[in-house]
Design brief:
- The chain is α/β, with parallel strands linked by helices.
- The chain contains seven helices and seven strands; from the N terminus they run E-H-E-H-E-H-E-H-E-H-E-H-H-E.
- A seven-stranded mixed sheet has the order 3-2-1-4-5-6-7, sandwiched between helices.
- Helix 4 links the parallel strand 4 and strand 5.
- It is globular, with a radius of gyration of 18 Å.
- About 35% of the residues are buried.
Length: about 240
């Protein structure tokens, strides 16, 4: 059965590839990206591929007008993929960075999800919610505590929502990717070095860089996923 799937954070990486792959499989995709250059680039790519079943729109989760516009879409599946990552020792990281990471990775996706759940309840619609978590949502490596704690939060939120909406025919799933070479983890590793100061912090820059380099060089780059509820056979 053909589904209409809304994907957040589809301007690059897994979600962009998944949007194209699911469109080729026949699904109708609403692929969203945070900033206009990503939207334009993805629209060009979609046009070159001749995929008329992908609609590309701007969706910045921190922009209430973008979110209100997205809530108008009639969809079967909401895939919460958008997120940001802050690295560095959680014992020293500035609290405003922790707060911002939670706002983007937890609070705003939850707000978007609640809006669609309310809509589906009124429509008495069977639907599905997907959260991109991380293998870090299941354990916590040092130096990544802020980011992976947001993913631990998503795991709990997804598990709770799954139990709450199951009687209404709504399924919930988390996806837990490993350290793939999409550039996301490497970029996130750099974030700590814009505030970490050897003169003020007990965590030293060179030591942290060595820790990150060792982790990112690991050959264990395998995808994994944990289903909170049974996966729909169509998506």
């Amino acid at each position: 059965m053909i589904k209409t799937i809304l994907i957040t954070g589809a301007g690059s990486g897994f979600a962009e590839a998944a949007a194209i792959g699911m469109a080729k499989a026949g699904h109708n995709i609403i692929a969203t990206a945070q900033i206009a250059p990503q939207v334009a680039a993805l629209r060009n790519k979609v046009a070159e591929l001749g995929l008329d079943n992908i609609r590309v729109e701007k969706l910045d989760l921190l922009d209430p007008y973008d979110v209100a516009f997205a809530q108008r879409f009639d969809i079967d599946v909401l895939w919460n993929n958008a997120g940001i990552g802050e690295s560095g020792p959680i014992s020293e990281i500035p609290i405003d960075l922790v707060r911002r990471n939670y706002e983007t990775n937890v609070f705003k996706p939850l707000e978007l999800t609640q809006g669609f759940i309310a809509k589906w309840m009124k429509q008495k619609k069977r639907a599905k919610i997907v959260f991109t978590s991380s293998m870090g949502g299941l354990f916590t490596p040092a130096g990544w505590g802020t980011y992976v704690s947001t993913k631990h939060a998503l795991e709990s939120i997804a598990e709770a929502i799954a139990q709450e909406v199951a009687p209404f025919g709504i399924k919930v799933q988390t996806i837990n990717p490993g350290a793939y070479l999409t550039g996301y983890n490497e970029t996130m590793a750099d974030t700590a070095f814009r505030w970490l100061d050897d003169n003020r912090n007990f965590t030293k820059r060179d030591e942290l860089r060595a820790t990150f380099d060792a982790l990112l060089a690991s050959p264990q780059r395998q995808r994994s996923k944990r289903c909170i509820a049974p996966m729909c056979s169509d998506c």
